[in-house]
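pasting for ref. prot 1 ->
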Amino acid sequence: MSVVEQPKSAGLIARVQGMLMKPAVEWDVIDGESATVPGLFTGYACILAAIIPIMSALAGILAFSALGALHSIVPFAAHLGPVAVIGGAVVSYVSALLTTFAVGFIIDALAPSFDGQRSQIQGMKLAVYSWTAVWVSGIALIIPLLGGLVVIAALFYSLYAFWIGAPKLMKVPAEKASGYALVCMLASLVAGAVIWWVLHAVEGMFFVGSMMTGGL
């Protein structure tokens, strides 16, 4: 199946392998591909971004089950635990997709300030594919402690992939590429933090309201 709805685009597995094994070469391929925003998300981001929430939820439910004695001490804990874990996973998933979408716009908007070329679709490509290492590393979250370290290492690799991909896709001159990549990453971190905070605030209000009304 095509990742971005074009016959010449790499398939999902091939694209993941390319971004993990040889990102510099893969960016050159991505740069010349036709793509659509819906295609990038439904064929790639929506699939891979689900890995971390799913594995986090599984790890959380397993950990909660191991504390079965807590059920007799806190009566509502048996219901709150799994519901909270699943709710958190859903929020994490939505947050990842919204952040990726927002980052695509940020990348596009900042390009002219560094003598680059504006292109919404190129910005979205950069935003979506840069997260590959982080999303895939979520598989390791089923392993306590070690999984978190793997994700942190993958985050640095994703930042590296973004760093080398930004000037290629947005046509930023070499002398301004580092500054552009750095500003984009900082702006993206702020956007991601705001989106995460808003969604978790909404989640918190939902659970408080449910507990007060006896919904959990």
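and prot 2 ->
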Amino acid sequence: MKKTKKSHPLCFIGEIRTKFSASHPPPRPFNESDYDAQIIIFPEFQEGLKELEKFKYIYVLFYLDQNQGYSLTAHPPSAKGKVVGVFASRSPHRPNPIGLSVVRLKGIKGNMVITEGIDAYDRTPVLDLKPYFLSHDAKKDANDGWREEIENQT
């Protein structure tokens, strides 16, 4: 294992390239397969992409740099009027504006990671990429929390 500089609190490793902006946000509901996106990794971090192309899905952690504050409650579109705590939602308006998406990896060309769509604005800073492991990340006993209550009401 190659030793590198001591890590520091946080740094951006790249940026997401999409067709979305604050004036043209991703549609709701968002269908990832309708869009492609690119994640441009800064050259000094490109070596970290080694072997990533062998995975079908990856986690993308990104900084929601266009957020204007946060709320401790959220009104998710699928909640049909129900108010939930921000930590029980996927609202981008969070105390720490960090986004997380699982996306299909379509390929890697140099420092460009090509994925199916990601619901982020163009030029959103990327904090990290991580592989999605089927054996570790798919939890057989997972549930849909408050969403199950809403589905049972219909």
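Residues 14-136+144-153 form a domain with the Elongation Factor Tu (Ef-tu); domain 3 fold (CATH 2.40.30.70).
The helical segments are 134-137, 146-153.
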